[in-house]
Amino acid sequence: MKYEGRIIRPPSEADSLLIQVTVGCSHNRCAFCGTYKDKKFRIKSMEEIEEDIAEAARFRGYERVFLCDGDALIIPQERLVRILESIRGSLKGIRRVGLYGNAKSVLRKSSEDLSELRKLGLGIIYLGVETGNEELLQKINKGADYGKMVEAARRIKDAGILLSVTVLLGIGGAEGGRRHALDTARILSDMDPDYVGALTVMLVPGTPLFKNYEEGSFSLPDAFGFIEELGIIISHARLTDCFFTSNHASNYLPLRVRLPQDREKALNLISRVLQKGDRGLLRPEYFRGL
Fold first, then answer.
1. Could you give the domains of the chain?
2. Strand partners, 198
């Protein structure tokens, strides 16, 4: 397999076969993210992709494929259909294909386009939302407002594709945490995703957010401030049937719960941790990472 640069995939795709179909991210302007700054975005040629699929056909035991890099859904429909058809024809036993999308790339696909992709094996789209606060969405340069985010989420779900949403604890800073958490709970309620992954913001040198931190215009909550935000989101989000996690390496308090069924259990744990104020109950700093 030919990979260019560092390859990123969701934690839930740890056992998936990774096929790089794009290099970098088509947006690549989020203020907090430094992942793809060293890559110029391009869509790989079908020849390159077909070579990787042919090589992957020699591997056994994979049930899932994840298409890298940061926004594979931006690939024009005709070519993405060809990629999925090639995977379906060459890789036996594959039950699901997943990829990252953003609001722009989702909304460039019609409902019919997404339904076609689902029929060819696209089973899950990972959508980075980060926050439901309109002002913050603009500040961190997500490239979409609240309405577009919700519209994209609903289009994915209407097509019968699983929706996994990422939100970012701490992106509102030390002063704006509660507002960010409440608005994030609201957007999650409007989206009603199948999965939510709560990550914790980490400052990456070279990013605009890190520059704001150095200049003093942005400060992070303390460890318990992040957990307070987590509790607000879980308490206020009205979700139909969602697997909610905060088990990413960046998080201080790993959780894996089903909402709404496990809401009280999760909130009781968060309350106990906040009441005790004991850092020994949290993931140590040296175990945290991106």
1. 11-287 (3.20.20.70)
2. 167
